[in-house]
């Protein structure tokens, strides 16, 4: 039995997901929705699918699942709408930048029995997945300390920053999700510092470009996140987990696996510089995991509740950076559970 | 304009090439030939192509190029047949295990004006291609010494060994091609040693499992090749080129990019263990290069003459290993040029 | 002209410094003080020096400088005493565990015009020194974010923990000094979290074994420190500094520079497991730097003021870990300046 | 009981050995011989030893062992003379550049019952020693293939080349010794190629600057050696040994253990550039091993026979490079055994 997909939004990330669907056995792309985009026509030609309106997809009998790649402020509405229409939903993160709106959306998901997966792609990176599998297999014993070093090659455009919700909700949110996933226990306390070091204009827009966060769970496990919007050497994405019997870490990925040596020394290529190149395999794997969960009727690998929890950590980090105080999340964590 | 492909042979490597064709823009798979294989039916279903006889493909108006993935002893015949039929030909290495047969085949290619590419996939590995590009860009100055370390995870089945032409023609031949490509000058002298160290049965079959070869060009550049049929840690594929101003090297590829640390030390994953996994990107890139050469009318990236030359080096290495003398190749090299 | 040294305390660290003195050109060890130790006799034999009382050394005409390697609670007294006696002083860190006592001691140093160096050995590690030199040479532009990963192979004995002043004053204090050195600007705000994860007995003694700290300067530069009292894979000592144009990092040191590969993967040696082995070169270099400063009359590379400032950061971190609030250090920093 | 040393020759390598003697427990430097050198005076001052003539040292009652650091053409004579005088002898390699002279010298050693160690320092490098210990401990099973990559930063002065005996006797000889040590079986066959690639003047002097050698033992084990007189990136010294169950390798040593990253990529320091810096620890360890063998009365770790055997391999390699034929060494090997 084939799972029939529609992709909502033919932009950059919509194309990534369409390509992923084409690679998954038992998945077919039947429709793309994007009223104004030439990209939609290119995708229709390439994958032999229809261009339809969102309304038509909502009403279609031949669509089992939608992949939401539209602007962030439409996510929650579309999730609710397609849950009510009985379609499974894969939604790019975030569900919304406002936790109240996310909670309302989750209520609809719950009432409709909707099946919703949120796209935290990093959990599906083959290296990070191997790292997690090793932890789950007991290779390092009980997890104690998680270190996440995560730096973008450069800041996004100013107008994106304005609508992004700020560095914690836009960039660190991936690390919050990874930290929750790796700590194996909900975070209870958040401490954060944030500065403007790379570009004063980012500060003028009310955002930060450099941040450090300490997360702590009830049993005292800790995660540390270090972020910058500027890494001249590429897209820096490292994870290290210390456990009682050992450590496991995932290395960066270079643009090429070759090395020069000359009188100045030994030279390796910069890192892969773009999130879509760095996480190509992860994007394919997350759609495959979504399709597999639909096929098997098993639990969604990442739920909208995971999206909410990461957003709460982002809000808490911002509050801590502004107040200079540790922010406790216990009550909220219980709600999510 | 789309280049229309037929794949001859639906075995393991035929499937690899079919997948590659499906990924190349402007290429289409229209037919698969394999009279007895269930694999042919699976490919026909997956790629929406016909199953046809080789005769039918030879006569077809809707086939521009064939990819020969049949047994080695059919390669030369099929190359000649499809050159005469006016189809472009991509042929898995080797053209034949006998240099006289290869020369006769080349004569037909020449007479028919045939366009033939031989599949030395390693030249298309992204890392090796980056290494070569760096040399061509002058990053290490004039090439002096090439080091090729190439070890298989394990020996092939005994019946394969019997028909393989021996380690030099079956395994080292890839290194001979790489050495020619990297030295930038034809090889003039070959010295080799070969032993049986991993399995006496291989010796009983008249073959070796461990070999070292020194190649030397007219200007004194040298390449050294070290081969073994057994590397417990995976498929070991390294290249290092020393030039007048520096060195460039390509590293191995591990099964995962993670590292453990414990009281015993630091532990990395074994190497990718299978040539198809290790060279996935190379197989895709070589078909893309073939399609691009057809589209542009440009020279074939690797010709049947390259195949002949590598085979001559293999024959010379075997002769040197048996005689204990350096074997000179000058006359033969001139014939090829 | 030779600088004549006396070493006070013939224990483990006293022996390290005696060996260092023996390697420094223009330095001579003339006396060792340790009334009860067989180690003192061994040192006297090995280096051909006298065993004397501290009183005798204080009064001696033939001693230019003392190296204080006695228990921590004697440091401040001995510094004052030898400053008053007109001897140069090298003192193992810390000056004292109590900042008030350190300030009083500094007052005596100031009044006597004493020349005092405090032994933060890590600044003299050849790799860390090369990293600092690179920053000072402008290789990464303005410093933005410092990452210090510092883990001990195992916790010290319980009775040591009891008198150590706690993890921040005993272990993290080295990282506080490194952070100050590398940030190039005084720390203004400290945030910390601390837990007991490796051994509940450490918690019962009122200490922690796992800690993370964020430091922030007035201009927004940040340093992050991650500490654990247990790293099964050896003594983990890494530094990474992100600047506006690049990053520079110092790697760990393994017990041997060899690698195994087998069917389980690739295996490197554990890290050097003991601070004296890991920092052998640093201990020699710090005494050489002290001797050079005495010879040249130049400024002490690390002053007692540096010792005070690191201790203030340790106190602030403890306060932050206990209160959950960021602790500001501005006024204190001004006092130190 | 202290072993009393005299060093013959106060040049660069003589100073290295004097420093090593000073570090060995139970060893004392009592005399240095070098009639014309200011270096001798400096050493006498630094180590508190006498300056004496070689005759005086030969006759001295207070000298147990000599370290011969004089020009190569005096080595064999001095070995014979001090063996006859009943002193133990440590001699820098080579004993002589002529195998007949070496054999004659060995005869004297045998007749006098002399205790002679030849200084192949690389066997005492901590990494190479760890690699060998791992092989001996069975970590990789039976040894199959040895790879030695050995490149000098630059060629020696022309007048040194003239008297050096050529690249095989001067440079590759270290690799011949390492190959013998690691193969665990005597070499039976030698094949070599040599060229002039870095400097035509070297060719004009009758020498080569680039060479590759294949060695083979009776059981078919092989070693491959690749040499160049020019490596712009430093002193390149790598070893890799493939065995039936795994591989073990020793990495190069960089001038510093730090890494830069910037828009051009990741940059490591060049290699240590000078044999004395690279092999500092090895020089100290070999003298310690010599002293230990004298103290214990145990076998010399490296004998003059080892020196002869390496020289025979060098001669065979030169002959192979000139003749283009494999050179067999069986009879000679039996003589040595």
TrEMBL record, chains A, B, C, D:
Assigned keywords, A-Z: Oxidoreductase
Gene Ontology molecular function, alphabetical: inositol 2-dehydrogenase (NAD+) activity
A Pfam family of this chain: GFO_IDH_MocA_C3
Listed PANTHER family: BINDING ROSSMANN FOLD OXIDOREDUCTASE, PUTATIVE (AFU_ORTHOLOGUE AFUA_2G10240)-RELATED, NAD(P)-BINDING ROSSMANN-FOLD SUPERFAMILY PROTEIN-RELATED
Stated family: Belongs to the Gfo/Idh/MocA family.
NCBIfam families (UniProt xref): myo_inos_iolG
Name used for this protein in its record: Inositol 2-dehydrogenase
Source species: Roseinatronobacter alkalisoli
């Amino acid at each position: 039995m084939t799972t029939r997909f529609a992709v909502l939004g033919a932009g950059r990330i919509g194309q990534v997901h369409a390509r992923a669907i084409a690679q998954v056995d038992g998945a077919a792309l039947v429709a793309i929705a994007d009223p104004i985009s030439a990209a939609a026509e290119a995708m229709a030609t390439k994958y032999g699918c229809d261009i339809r309106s969102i309304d038509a997809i909502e009403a279609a009998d031949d669509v089992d699942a939608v992949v939401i790649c539209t602007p962030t402020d439409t996510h929650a509405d579309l999730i609710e709408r397609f849950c009510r229409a009985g379609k499974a939903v894969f939604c790019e993160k975030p569900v919304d930048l406002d936790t109240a709106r996310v909670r309302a959306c989750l209520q609809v998901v719950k009432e409709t029995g909707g099946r919703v997966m949120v796209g935290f792609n990093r959990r599906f990176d083959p290296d990070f997945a191997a790292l997690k599998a090793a932890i789950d297999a007991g290779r390092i014993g009980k997890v104690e300390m998680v270190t996440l070093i995560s730096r973008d090659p450069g800041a996004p455009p100013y107008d994106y920053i304005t609508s992004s919700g700020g560095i914690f909700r836009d960039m660190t949110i991936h690390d919050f999700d990874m930290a929750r996933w790796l700590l194996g226990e909900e975070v209870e306390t958040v401490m954060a510092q944030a500065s403007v070091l790379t570009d004063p204009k980012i500060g003028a827009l009310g955002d930060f470009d450099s941040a450090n966060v300490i997360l702590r769970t009830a049993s005292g496990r800790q995660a540390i996140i270090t972020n910058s919007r500027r890494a001249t050497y590429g897209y820096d994405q490292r994870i290290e987990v210390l456990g009682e019997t050992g450590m496991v870490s995932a290395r960066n990925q270079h643009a090429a696996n070759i090395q020069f040596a000359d009188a100045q020394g030994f030279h390796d290529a910069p890192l892969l510089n773009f999130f879509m190149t760095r996480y190509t395999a992860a994007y394919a794997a997350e759609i495959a995991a979504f399709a597999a969960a639909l096929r098997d009727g098993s639990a969604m690998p990442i739920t909208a509740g995971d999206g909410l929890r990461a957003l709460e950590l982002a809000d808490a980090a911002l509050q801590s950076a502004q107040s200079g105080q540790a922010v406790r999340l216990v009550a909220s964590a219980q709600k999510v559970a």
